[in-house]
Amino acid sequence: MNRLTTSLALATLVVSTSAVSMLVCPPQLSADEPARTAAQAATQPVAEPQTMSFWMGKKLDHSQGILRALAESDFEAIAEHARQLQRLNKVEGFVRRRNPDYTAHLQYFARISKELTQQAEQENIEGTTLAFNQLTVSCVRCHQTLRQHDQQPDLSKPAAAK
């Protein structure tokens, strides 16, 4: 393929992926918001909490893909899903970089997903399984940290007057 065809194919892939993502994971409405049509929801910017759940949903999809590929000993798929997790991890790191505990979890996740890729490229089922297990534990611990962080009061803001 020449460069123009490759660029056109890539642009088509990005647009179609975005469109499918909006259909599969539309922005969520809170209970106190009036009902909106799908077209209105698609044209309005997505708030940060929905953005986070969007990226987490993508990470979950790739994690499930790894589990499926592990069961089938499909090392190419394992490596590709692990590489996608590494890419998503970089995006998440940029979005949530203000939380130092989260940053530490991201760094660990990056090391483990890289190890997962290496083990898959070596077609080492035991090493791949161990790395996936460590990745799963990493996800659980990170979400525990995020829940604890969300429950703590923000001491940088003055308390509201009663």
UniProtKB/TrEMBL annotation:
This is Cytochrome C. Keywords: Signal. The lineage of its organism: Bacteria, Pseudomonadati, Planctomycetota, Planctomycetia, Pirellulales. GO terms for biological process: electron transport chain. It comes from the Bacteria. InterPro entries: Cyt_c/b562. Residues 1-31 form the signal peptide. GO terms for molecular function: electron transfer activity; heme binding; iron ion binding.
